[in-house]
């Protein structure tokens, strides 16, 4: 989600953005215009459900169970070690020794209003910064390759410097394999 936010910020405020790094995301997920009304309705229902569930007493889990739930919740793209790292800010241990999640469930709800590919291309046309995309070899692809190729072409044309690097790993390449991702990011931030 951070990559999508940085893309939108850099395209909205090109004069304030020098560099962006996007990890395992080429662009935010787009929506076809005719599908937006149903997507908005689904999002509203999910938000209402998340708000109702957020106000109730949290569910408690033992340590092993909460680790496994976290790994499964991220579609097995996290290693156990990475899940333990995320637990530091995403869970709370209670006096009874049990754990509960502390994240706001509303962040997992699909966007109420999403952009079309055409809108995203218009944003991409505003980019002026230096841009690095790190794509995980086993990371998800949400849309047709042609859509991504077109966005990559705009990035190459509009950004001051554009780098695209593929690294072996899952969606959480930066967390599971920081020894692979960190040098690429460091070099980009240092050299460009």
From TrEMBL:
InterPro entries: AB_hydrolase_fold, AB_hydrolase_sf. One of its GO terms (molecular function) is hydrolase activity. GO terms for cellular component: membrane. Keywords: Hydrolase. The keyword Hydrolase applies. Belongs to the AB hydrolase superfamily. This is Uncharacterized protein.
């Amino acid at each position: 989600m951070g990559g999508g936010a940085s893309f939108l910020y850099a395209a909205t405020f090109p004069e304030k953005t020098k560099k962006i790094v996007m990890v395992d995301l080429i662009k935010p997920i787009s929506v076809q215009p005719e599908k937006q009304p149903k997507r908005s309705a689904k999002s509203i229902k999910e938000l209402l459900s998340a708000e109702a569930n957020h106000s109730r007493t949290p569910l408690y889990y033992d340590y092993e169970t909460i680790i496994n739930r976290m790994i499964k919740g991220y579609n097995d793209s996290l290693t156990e070690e990475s899940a333990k790292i995320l637990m530091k800010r995403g869970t709370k241990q209670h006096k009874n020794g049990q754990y509960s999640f502390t994240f706001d469930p509303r962040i997992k709800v699909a966007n109420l209003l999403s952009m079309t590919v055409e809108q995203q291309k218009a944003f991409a046309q505003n980019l002026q910064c230096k841009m690095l995309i790190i794509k995980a070899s086993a990371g998800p692809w949400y849309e047709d390759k042609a859509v991504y190729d077109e966005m990559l072409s705009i990035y190459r044309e509009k950004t001051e410097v554009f780098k695209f690097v593929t690294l072996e790993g899952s969606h959480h390449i930066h967390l599971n394999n920081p020894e692979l991702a960190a040098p690429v990011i460091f070099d980009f931030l240092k050299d460009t």
